[in-house]
Amino acid sequence: MAGVLEAAHSADPAVRAGEAAAAAAVAAGDGLPPDVPLTDLTAAAFFDVDNTMMVGASIFHFARGLAARKFFTTADLAGFAWQQLKFRVGGRETAYSTTTGRDTALSFVAGRAVSEITELGEEIYDELMADRIWAGTRALAQMHLDAGQRVWLVTATPVELALIIARRLGLTGALGTVAESVDGIYTGRLVGEILHGPAKAHAVRALAVTEGLDLRRCTAYSDSVNDVPMLSAVGTAVAVNPDSELRDVAKERGWQIRDFRTGRKAARIGVPSVIGVGAIAGAVAAGLAARKR
Question: Which residue ranges does UniProt annotate as crossing the membrane (predicted)?
Fold first, then answer.
């Protein structure tokens, strides 16, 4: 963790979050099995997770699993979901979803071991996430792997959980929100801010420098207009299961659009898709933070 903290030296929280995410991804090492050849080392693919690679929000599924283990109550979880719904309907980030949420992000894990949370993440992935992977998006990722390229997830989800998802899918690794830890124990603070919006683009650029990638030859995939900065940072952008705003941007810019949803399913998951927005700043901590105040 010390190396990650040293790498994240910028005063800008978004840049700092991106630098930390890239450093954590490099520190975790490549997740590809030894029999997967890497023949195209300057090209790579970057996939958002929530409603791009996975149905719904990974952090919300994780929070459900933690609630089942009495980390906080289902009422706390419902309260967070309601805050996110208000954010979606209101169309703007509220004080809750930015300042308050960011400041309390992951506060509930303060004093807990990183290894404990990682172990729980493994269990919860099997219980609540493994069956929610979009087959179509998984096939897109495999296409890049078969072409000898590396594939990273890029998500606001905690990097420990993001790495679990990447490993289970046979991907190279993941860029995720980095929670500060000292000697393997969480402090309850973030390094920079949530890996969201511009921070994702900073993470991709930082990783490209470290890994020798040519971003003009790279591809990015996302469902959300919030990821336009990341999609704009690469040579090929693909809107997957896009929200209406991203669909409009994609059409305007000539980006590819892939939609693996049926009309009924698209309507049903429309609200949960925003759970990923400010997810770290809520699903795993909102209820407890409120109860502590």
Answer: 269-290
CA atoms of 102 and 87, how far apart (whole Å): 15
Q: DSSP 3-state assignment of 38? A: coil
Q: Report how far apart, in Å, the C-alpha atoms of 49 and of each of 37, 106, 108, 260 are.
A: 24, 19, 23, 14
Q: How many whole angstroms separate alpha carbon 22 and alpha carbon 7?
A: 9
> What is the three-class DSSP state of 231?
helix
> What 3-state class would DSSP assign to 47?
strand
**Which sequence positions are flagged as catalytic?**
48, 50
Distance CA(209)–CA(233), nearest Å, equals 13
| Contact in structure between 145 and 10 (CB atoms under 8 Å) | no
What are 254's two structure tokens? 């000539």
- The pTM for the full model equals 0.82
pLDDT digits (tens, 9 = 90+) for 250-263: 999 999 999 999 75
